[in-house]
Amino acid sequence: YRLSIDQAILPKTSHVDDKLCFILDFSNHGYAAPSKKLKLYFILNSGSHYYAAEIPDVDVRTWLPGHISAVYAGVRLRNVPEGTYKVLLGLLDPLKGGSHADYNVLLATHNVPMHSEGLNDLGHTVTISGTNSQSTSCPDVTSWRPPPSGEYSRRCDSSCYSSFGPH
Predict the structure, then answer these.
(1) 34-73 pLDDT per residue, tens
(2) Which of 7-11, 59-63, 80-84, 134-138 has the lowest mean pLDDT?
(3) How far, in Å, are 5, 131, 165 from residue 118 at the CA level?
(4) CA 44 to CA 52: how far, in whole Å?
(5) Which burial class, exposed, middle or buried, applies to 51 when counting CB atoms under 10 A from its CB (0-12, 13-18, 19+)?
(6) Which of 94, 149, 97 is nearest to 118 (CA)?
(7) Which helix (H) or strand (E) holds 14?
(8) SS in 3 state form for 45-103?
(9) pLDDT digits (tens, 9 = 90+) for 98-148
(10) How far apart are CA 152 and CA 39, in angstroms?
(11) Which of 1, 37, 80, 104 is close enough to 30 for a disulfide, judged by CB 3.0 to 4.6 Å?
């Protein structure tokens, strides 16, 4: 498999305790679907602070080559302090518990992989402000610790990546 993100539709602002909805379109440019069940995490990062929620009901093993796989999801921003956050994605191997960056999947999209962290930077920020008391059934975003940096270089030249965003 060779997964990339083609489009991410995300809000620029939201509120503490609010539901943040988004759409992610992934493509598989490889020859097979992933064989492992990976966990997809939506991650907010500001400096050394990380907040994350697992996106339920996503099975990357169904992401077949030549097809676009859309993920329509939302997370609840419970206990996320006001501020501006980078939006990251994690595709984590549940057998390793997301505890080592070398086992996380990096997307083959230009300027998205964070090689040593084993995460993917969508190049988008969201500003969280105030509170909103809407009830929601989305998973809560909670404080999170990223895995230690990987010990292996996973860099490649520009031929490894597809472009991201409007074409």
Answers:
(1) 998 999 999 999 999 999 999 999 999 999 999 999 999 9
(2) 134-138
(3) 15, 32, 21
(4) 6
(5) buried
(6) 149
(7) strand 13-16
(8) EECCEEEEEECCCCCHHHCCCCCEEEEEEEEECCCCCCEEEEEEEEEECCCCCCCCHHH
(9) 677 888 899 998 899 888 889 999 999 999 998 665 555 566 666 767 776
(10) 22
(11) 1
Q: For residue 88, what are the β-bridge partners?
A: 43, 121
Tokens describing residue 151 = 């010990």
> In terms of pTM, does the model score above 0.85?
no
In angstroms, the CA 127 to CA 15 distance is 8
Which residue, among 11, 31, 26, 27, has the nearest Cα to 129 in the 3D structure? 11
CB of 89 within 8 A of CB of 113? no
Give me Rg for the CA atoms of the chain.
15
Provide the 10 A C-beta neighbour count for residue 62: 11
Sequence letter at residue 91: L
